[in-house]
Description:
Layout: H1 19-26, E1 31-37, E2 40-46, H2 54-66, E3 73-74, E4 92-95, E5 101-107, H3 112-121, E6 126-131, H4 134-147, E7 154-158, H5 163-170, E8 174-182, E9 185-190, E10 193-198, E11 200-201
Amino acid sequence: MAMPGLLRHPEEIPKGWSRRARISYHREVRLRCDLHVNGDDRKLVLVPRASETDEHTAMKLAAFLLFWAADPIVEAGAQHPALLGQEFIPDLMGLDLSGFLSLWVECGKISMHKLDKLYRRFPAARIVIVKATPREAERLRRDIAGEVAHPERVSVVAFPDGSFREWMSALREKVEVYGEASEHSLNLVVNEMAFVADLGSH
């Protein structure tokens, strides 16, 4: 599922190219976002990693809007003070007033091993996973219930069926967003296209 005229999936890169050429090719395109949400204005640039799909980049933008009130940091580096000594990097994170990590957001897939480490290392942080469909969220919730020691520490939210595909179809390299957002609701105009979604908890 590729956003029209935007990012390329790794399998679409010509065969025979070197790893450096593949990375350069994939990173040519960025999402440059002008966001006007909840009476506040922000700019955001999302640069996909070499192995990152269109879906993951699109979901990170959606998560940024969902957690707008937390003023989230997107893809903080390993040298960020809140992440020192950690081998994992969140898709988004929020900090409390003391600079400690209070919110860890993952978009799409996550291993049970990673989840187990996260709630042990950040006992005071909320851990939220955003999924594209209710079916994916329900499957993840079953895995968490069976394999994670404290499943109540993990929140799983998902777009309604078909809604995430609609979200992706609205995105271009330049993204303009107007509207309102909360942790479970998006009521937006995205590149002049109306987009409304109520995300469910699973």
